[in-house]
Amino acid sequence: MTDLNTKLEIFDAIAARRNERRGFLRFAGGSALAIGGASLLAACGNDDEDLAPAPTPTPTPAAAINDADILNYALNLEYLEAQFYAFAAFGVGLNASLLTGTGTQGAVTGGAQVPFQDAVVREYAREIAIDEVAHVAFLRTALGTAAVAQPAIDISAGTVAAPGAFTAAARAAGVVSASQVFNPYADDNSFLLGAYIFEDVGVSAYKGAAALIANKTYLEAAAGILAAEAYHAGLIRTILYRKGLDAPSLRTIAGQISDARDSLDGSSDIDQGITGTDATISNIVPTDANGLAYSRSIAQVHNIAYLTNTARIGGGFFPNGTNNRTDALRSSGANA
After folding, report:
1. Are 177 and 171 in contact (CB under 8 A)?
2. Prediction pTM value
3. Tell me: the pLDDT tens digits for 289-302?
């Protein structure tokens, strides 16, 4: 168990990074994102007879996704990643002050400190945890009062009879059988595989969301997080590949996880394992023929997080769904 001084160090580091990144708000007008439009005022004469007949009311279409929706979409993903890494690296979750906001606040199910044996894996976990918690704080500052609360999150292994999200994901990928559980906190390799489930999804989510962000300042901020997530994904993929040279089953399992994500995000093949067709050749950076990282839509990312290929709301790592509006729009197919 991490001692108190070490835990204080992690949160001191997070606070320092958060303060460094707050500066971007000064260039975005000095205020949090506004949601909704301004009121429209119409001038009219005093004589009602001069007014045209009132038009027949028509249904109000759902408002298009705005920058606040996109940042809240990202915030939900960061809640999930930050909780997983914070527990795995330090045995503690996010501070309560980072969980409040609009919508229903939920609790975290699962989470435990990993008994790391490999010092390299342990230090990577610590570094990524610091970044992910800082991302939560950063996005919450950017959104201000528009920030959504953390929804209910499941990062548990569960039991054979009542599988948690990680076991459900592993079973769907064929990594474990229906009579087994997958515990990402059991050891170094299990942690790496658990992290692998998230990291590539995070990169493709930010890449796909970039085209939907209108404000260039917020786009730059999102690009900064995308770059950090890409570094994280590269670290996880690299060390999995290296360990897979001695334990080929790791390469096989990574390929199964990749195939499972592909089965959830639609018919297109936009996911890749850590090796090529030759199992000894590395594939650290999953790209298309042009060497570009793949994008995922909001709907595709939700499907993976919910462990479903339907438009239902909730399941998997977010048992009750997310609090942000992109979830409802996803279920209707709008801008998803």
Report:
1. yes
2. 0.81
3. 888 888 888 888 99
